[in-house]
Write a structure and sequence with these properties.
105 residues; 4 helices
Length: 105
Amino acid sequence: MVEEIRSGMLTIKQSIQQHHVSGSVLQKWNRWYYKIRLLKYYKPSFHMIPSQTTVEQLEQQLAEAHTQLAQVKLQNTALETMITVAEKQLNIEIRKKYGSKRSRS
């Protein structure tokens, strides 16, 4: 019954009416379910202060992400320039025109 409520299959009111149980009993069962069945899977950590190595690792990952972003931006600029030069030299439009229909071959 508690799983039906937690999963959203029934509301608390529907469950009380369907199973003929009082709200206080249902509340007790819900607390028991959380303590006995779920708490072993969701052990709350009271020491949420990250360790120094974790902070250093995250800073290193952030620096690597910034480096990769800069590299991708540079690559994008190079490709855009290459397309612009090719369009001018070949007198054709390479970029897709949004909203236009595909040509039938």
